[in-house]
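FAQ

Q: What does a record look like?
A: Structure on top, sequence underneath. For example:
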């Protein structure tokens, strides 16, 4: 669907699931960040962020109800 391999493990970090500590030079680093949802324990990867922003801006009513951001901006520009 989105091409991510896992959302249960971060790309950069320590401990179980790379979810402990910060991303430092001592961290485990994944070989391909584009297949991970999370960069570290707190932040989505760039690819995940692009999907989130696209959904907010142009997403269907299934995800953005009552309207997405592009519809709000279009309405706002009419005033």
């Amino acid at each position: 669907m989105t091409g991510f391999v896992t959302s249960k493990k971060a790309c950069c970090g320590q401990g179980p699931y790379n979810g402990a500590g910060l991303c430092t030079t001592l961290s485990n680093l994944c070989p391909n960040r584009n297949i991970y949802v999370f960069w570290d324990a707190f932040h989505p990867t760039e690819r995940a962020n692009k999907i989130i922003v696209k959904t907010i801006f142009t997403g269907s009513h299934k995800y953005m109800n009552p309207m997405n951001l592009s519809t709000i901006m279009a309405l706002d520009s009419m005033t």
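Q: Is there anything notable about this one?
A: Residues 46-58 form the longest helix (13 residues).
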